[in-house]
Amino acid sequence: MPPILPAPTPVSKPKLLDQVRDAIRLRHYSIRTEQVYINWIKRFILFHNKRHPTEMAEAEVRKFLSYLARIGNVAASTQNQALSALLFLYKEVLRQEIGWLGDVERAKRPPKLPVVLSRTEIRKIFLRLTGTEKLMAGLLYGGGLRLMECMRLRVKDIDFDYAQITVRDGKGGKDRVTMLPVNLAAPLQKHVARMKMQHDQDLIDGFGAVHLPFALARKFPNAEREWAWQYIFSFRPLERRSAIRQETTAPHVGSDPAKRAENGRAGSGHRKAGDVSHVAAFLRHAFAGARLRHSHRAGIVRP
After folding, report:
1. Which of 86, 113, 186, 264 has an alpha carbon 20 to 30 Å from 286's alpha carbon atom?
2. Would residue 228 count as lying in a domain?
3. How many domains would you assign to the chain?
4. Which of 18-32, 110-124, 285-299 has the highest mean pLDDT?
C-alpha cells in the first residue's frame, strides 16, 4: 500500500505591497525607487478609503492626480512620479490591461535652467564646512559625484596611485570612473587611515560587517568584514536591513552631516535671488561648468 502523503500546506497569497516589492526587486530597481513607489501606492489606496486597486480604474487615478496638483500643490515632476508608481502597480504587479491608464495625461514640466554656483559661492561653502562634511563636499565638487554615490564609496573604489574614483552602480545601474582631486588625496588618505583604526576596533567588538551587493555574501562569506569592502564614510556599520534585502543606505555616516553638506545649512552664502539650498546638485553643476571652462581654455570644442 503506497504511503499516504501529507496534504500540502496552503500558501497564502502575499499582500499587495509585498507583491510590489517583489516585482521591484526582480527588476533590480534601486532601494529609493522601491520606497517612493510603495509610498505613492499607499497614498493612492488611503486616498480612496482603502479600496483595492483592482476595484479602481482611470477615474480614481485621475481624481488622485488632480488632488495632488490642486490641493497638494505638488510640482509636475512629483505628479509624474506618482503616475509612474501607479503605472508600475497596474502593469507589472496586477497584470491588467492599462490602455486607459496610458491615456492619462502627464503633467508638463516647465523648462528650467540649472543653477550653477560661482567660484565665490563655492569658496563660501567650503569656508563654512569642516571635517568629513568638507571632504564629502570636495568629492562632490571635484569629482562630480552625487550625494549617495559619495556615501556609498568603498575603500577599494579609491585609487590613489592613478588619482581616480570608481563609482559603482551609479544612476541607471552604471559604473563610471571619475577623477580624484589632487588636493583631496592627502586628507582622504588620513580619513581612510582613521577609518581603518575604527574598523580594526569594530572587528574586536564583534562589528565591522557591511552589506555586499547581490550574491557576493554567499560566494565570499568573509568579504563582508574585509577592509577593501568597507564604506569610506561610515561609523560602526551595523546592518539594519531585513534578511530579504539590505538597504545600501544603512551603514553610512549619519544623515545630519550628509544633509548639511548637501543643503548648505552650514553656510552656503547668498545669491541675489535668496539663499542657496540643496547644494549637492549645484556642486555637480559647478563641476560640469568648471570642466567646460577648462575645455574652452584648452581650445577643445565640446557639444
Report:
1. 186
2. yes
3. 2
4. 18-32
* CATH code of the domain in which 280 resides: 1.10.443
Helix (H, G, I), strand (E, B) or coil at 176: strand
Long-range Cβ pairs for the range 131-134 (8 Å, 24+): 132/191, 132/233, 132/253, 132/257, 133/257, 133/258, 133/260, 133/261, 133/266, 134/261
CA angle, 133 then 135 then 136, to 5°: 65
Q: State which H helix or E strand residue 158 sits in.
A: strand 158-159
Q: Please state whether 213 falls in left (phi above 0), alpha (psi between -120 and 50) or beta.
A: beta
Amino acid at 299: G
Tell me if 282 sits within 8 A of 276, measured CB to CB: yes
Task: For 81-92, write each residue's pLDDT tens digit.
Answer: 999 999 999 989
Same domain, 95 and 135: no
If asked whether residues 129 and 93 sit together in one domain, one would say: no
- Do 111 and 76 contact (CB within 8 A), yes or no? no
Closest by Cα among 59, 60, 62, 39 to 51: 60
Q: pLDDT over 90 for what percent of the chain?
A: 27
Compute φ and ψ for 259, nearest 5 degrees: -70, -35
Q: Is residue 23 scored above 60 in pLDDT?
A: yes
Distance CA 116, CA 118 (A): 6
Amino acid symbol at 269: G
